[in-house]
Amino acid sequence: MVTPQAISVAIVDDDPSLCRSLARLLKASGFEATTFLSAETFLERDTRDFDCLVLDIQLGGMSGLDLGRQLATDGSKVPVIYL
Description:
alpha/beta
């Protein structure tokens, strides 16, 4: 079984206060959390670094749905939670 400390979650949301709140909640629960304010910024990072993604559906620029579709097309099997 994977322990929460080993699970890395990416949060992609254009609302900085929501990113901070979600990151604090996840960290308080023992998860690693990294925030991104846009899908484009997230894509600049090696997306294989994460075990789970939390995506805002309505982002400025590329939407969370479009990001999820692109990752699936690229073969990603990482679970996605849409907000």
